[in-house]
């Protein structure tokens, strides 16, 4: 299924396959998506191994944006520990977070292309129920802050 929106950018079918493997089967720890060279399709750039730490994801997205010249989308499987009311002990939950990362240093044209194309990716992947983060700096992707946000969205 290729969804095309106002930006003219379509979503490559490999994005949906990789996302389903991450979201439903937890085969990966993260996926980094990019808009390809000709600005015509969103494609998978990097897939993190199942047990890769969050710090690896941060390193990979930092490399991908080339010092702030590029933007990226990502889906990250984040594990949080929650204490549920009435339950003994804590339980671990795995939640997928969608990230739209456009550094302030990236060219305006790139930021606009990523902003206008995100709806196609969200529609293809079915992201309505995921926590979503819009980041313009690596500090916006701090693991503790994201886990804290996830915890505040959990019903206990």
TrEMBL record:
GO terms for molecular function: actin binding. GO terms for cellular component: actin cytoskeleton. It comes from Diploscapter pachys. The keyword RNA-binding does not apply. SMART domains: ADF (SM00102). Keywords: Actin-binding. This is ADF-H domain-containing protein. InterPro entries: ADF-H, ADF-H/Gelsolin-like_dom_sf, ADF/Cofilin. The lineage of its organism: Eukaryota, Metazoa, Ecdysozoa, Nematoda, Chromadorea. It holds the Pfam family Cofilin_ADF. Belongs to the actin-binding proteins ADF family. Residues 8-151 form the ADF-H domain. GO terms for biological process: actin filament depolymerization.
């Amino acid at each position: 299924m290729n969804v095309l929106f106002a930006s003219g950018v379509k979503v490559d079918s490999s994005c949906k396959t990789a996302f389903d493997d991450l979201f439903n089967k937890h085969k990966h720890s993260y996926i980094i998506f990019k808009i390809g060279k000709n600005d015509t399709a969103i494609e998978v750039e990097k897939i993190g191994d199942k047990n890769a730490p969050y710090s690896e994801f941060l390193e990979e997205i930092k490399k991908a944006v080339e010092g702030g010249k590029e933007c990226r989308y990502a889906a990250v499987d984040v594990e949080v520990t929650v204490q549920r009311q009435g339950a003994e002990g804590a339980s671990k939950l795995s939640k997928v977070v969608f990230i739209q990362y456009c550094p302030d240093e990236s060219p305006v044209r790139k930021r606009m292309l990523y902003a206008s194309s995100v709806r196609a990716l969200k529609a293809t992947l079915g992201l309505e129920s995921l926590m979503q983060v819009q980041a313009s700096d690596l500090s916006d992707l701090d693991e503790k802050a994201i886990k804290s946000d996830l915890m505040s969205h959990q019903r206990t």
